[in-house]
Amino acid sequence: MPRVTFDSRAVKPGMLFIALKGEKSDGHDYIPQALAAGAAGVIDGYAELDRAARDWRRTLKATVIGVTGSAGKTTTKEFLRTFFSALGKTAATEGNFNNHIGLPVTILNCPADADFLIVEMGTNHPGEIAHLCSVAEPDVGLITNIGTAHIGNFGSREAIAREKGVILTAAKKFGIGPGADAALPPRLAEAVAAVLPGAHNQANAALAFAAAARFGLTEDAAIAALAHFALPDARWRRVEKNGVLFIDDTYNANPDAMVAALDAFASMPCKGRKIAILGDMFELGERAAELHAKVFDHAAGLGFAEVIAVGETASTCRADASFRTVAELAAVLADRFAPGDAVLLKASHGLHLGDVLGQ
Length: 359
Prior knowledge:
Elements: E1 4-5, E2 16-19, H1 31-36, E3 41-44, H2 45-59, E4 63-68, H3 73-85, E5 90-92, H4 102-108, E6 116-120, H5 128-136, E7 140-143, H6 151-154, H7 157-170, E8 174-176, H8 186-195, H9 199-213, H10 219-225, E9 237-241, E10 244-248, H11 255-267, E11 274-279, H12 288-300, E12 306-310, E13 321-323, H13 326-333, E14 342-346
Parallel strand pairs: 1-2, 2-3, 4-6, 4-7, 5-6, 7-8, 10-14, 11-12, 11-14, 12-13
Antiparallel strand pairs: 9-10
Helix pairs in contact: 2-4, 3-9, 5-7, 8-10, 11-12
């Protein structure tokens, strides 16, 4: 059972309730309900949450592995979870709980007997990785890559690199940066490709295996562990409707992740046509139009039967068809494809492009 929650409806006897004041609601208003449900106490505010998480982290025997990067954080985290679970009891960030609230909650819910704790660290403003590291105090730090995600808030790729690089200096035992990990051994590379295609996912798995191998994981053990690999939420989710295969990769997007997903989709076997439906990417600042155009130019060169744009910015790019809203696309989606076709859906989560598939 989790030790803490900030949802008063999820409180069970003996848990701690986290009362936080947000933009839309104030958790302090729900303290009576939490106590009535059996909460053992209240963690009051963000500073107290950080202190409690840091104190609990220092009691843990678990080796703490932190992972950040412009793209592929969650995929790499799930490879880490899979590989380290073959070495001992492993806890990890659930879903995308990687910010100033999610990370301390993840730490506080880590079992006392865990051998490893994998924590994902996200950032969209300078200084956030340093703050998260001050709470998690990672033993190992990993960076998947340095790209252009949230560049509107950082100003340059160099500034993003400085932000991400903090995790390497904070790591107590070792850090692995982009490109520092060796390629996967051939048999393991084949096994990874069977569960998740794409060169970028080979790189994500290689980073995770490089870390786990330092703790004794063998190639054979890693291959066996992949039988339990799965991605959360709308990350390369395969949905078949009326004989059409949809790849729902709409949990989030940035220019580097877009290109990687397009390349992976292009490499997939398909009996019919391949269609890429690409939507808006957010938080790109004044370079938004330029970066969207580059993604669509890349897509145009991959030989898809159609490239379809959705969203205010995406619809200004070179495409075979354009829709300003997801609703406009949804109205014609059913008549656009035939059995055997494969369709990639990729956009920032806030566009809700995945809604066209229903539940």
